[in-house]
C-alpha cells in the first residue's frame, strides 16, 4: 500500500517560529517592499502589555502614530497624480454635537448620479487620520473609477484625534452616513456603501448594525469591509479562528491588537457588544441588513473572523459574499500600490463593482 506524506500545516501552525519571509505563500513583491522599510525584521519586545496602565497605552499610541503615518506616506511617494477628480472638505455636526470633517473626492465630470462610498480609515479605531496620504490616495483612486468617495475624520481612542474611546468613533461614522443619506440628491449620489479596512472595517460593519438599532438601516445600501478587525479574540485566541494562530506576527501581532483593544474600550464593559465588536452579532442583529461584501487576506491573523462574519450574515438571510486575496498580509492590497499595482487595482475595481451592484439593485427595487 502506497504511503502518503502528510503535508505540513500552513504558516505558524506548521512551524511556530516561521518568519514571514520564509513562508512560501507570500508574494515576493510584497516581501521586497516590506524589506526595504525594515518591516521584516524580527519583532522586538513591546514596551506595553495587557496589564499596562491606560496612561502608558495612550503614551505608546501617541509616540507610535507619527511613525505609522510616515510609513503610509512613504509607500505613496513617487506615484503619479490621480487626474480628473476634484476634492473638497465639508464639515458637519455629529450626533454627539462635535464637528466632523468629511473629505469628499469625486469625478470632475458627472453627467449622472454616482454611487457614494463613505470611507472609514484603518488604525484599529485607535490611530491614524483620514487626511493621511494612504487614505487620500485611496479615495482619489476610487473616485477616478466613477464614485463619490467621502472620508470621515472620526474621533480616535488615542493619538492626535483622541483620546475618545467607544462609542465616539462609531457615532461619528454613523453621523457621516446619515448626513450622506439625507443629502444624497444634493451631492448627486445614487446610493450609499459604507466601506473601511481593518479598524475601519469594524466601524463599517458596526455602523450598519447601529443604523438598524436607530431604525435607519435604509440609510445604508451596502457594506464593503476589508480585513475587518471585529472579534477582539486576540489575547485569549479563539480556537475557531485558525488564522489567529497561523498568521500571528505576520504584519499584525495578536498581543499588540489585544493590548490596544483596551484603549478602544478601557473598562471592558463592551467586550460582548456587537457595536464595539461586530463578531458578537447574533442572527436577530443581522437580520434584514443590506448586502455585504468582505475582503480578507490569506496571511492575515484577521482572515478567519471576516469569513466567519460573512457566514453569519448568510445564515441570517443577508446577501453576503467574501473573497480571499492570496499571498498578502493585512491590507497589503491597499498599502503596496507601487509594488503590487495589479493587486491594488483589483481591490479598487472590486469596491467599484460592489457599489455598482448595490445601486443597480436599489434602482430596480424602487
Task: Please outline what is shown here.
By secondary structure, this protein is α/β, with parallel strands linked by helices.
Task: List the defining traits of the structure above.
366 residues, alpha/beta, eight-stranded mixed β-sheet, 38% helix, globular
Give a structural overview.
- It is a single chain.
- With 366 residues, the protein is α/β, with parallel strands linked by helices.
- 38% of the residues lie in helices and 15% in strands.
- The chain contains 12 helices and 8 strands.
- An 8-stranded mixed sheet has the order 1-2-4-3-5-6-7-8.
- Helix 5 (168-182) crosses helix 6.
- The radius of gyration is 20 Å and the shape is globular.
Uncertain regions spanning at least 5 consecutive residues: none
Alpha carbon gap, first and last residue: 64 Å
| Helix segment tally | 12
What structural category characterises the helix and strand content?
alpha/beta
Please report which band the strand proportion falls in: under 5%, 5-15%, 15-25%, 25-35%, 35-45% or over 45%.
15-25%
Major β-sheet profile: 8 strands, mixed
Strand and helix order? HHHEEEHEHEHEHHHEHEHH
Global mean pLDDT? 95
The tally of strands reads: 8
Q: Report the C-alpha radius of gyration, rounded.
A: 20 Å
- Overall helicity: 25-40%
Strand order of the largest sheet: 1-2-4-3-5-6-7-8
Q: Which overall shape is indicated by the principal axes computed on the Cα atoms?
A: globular
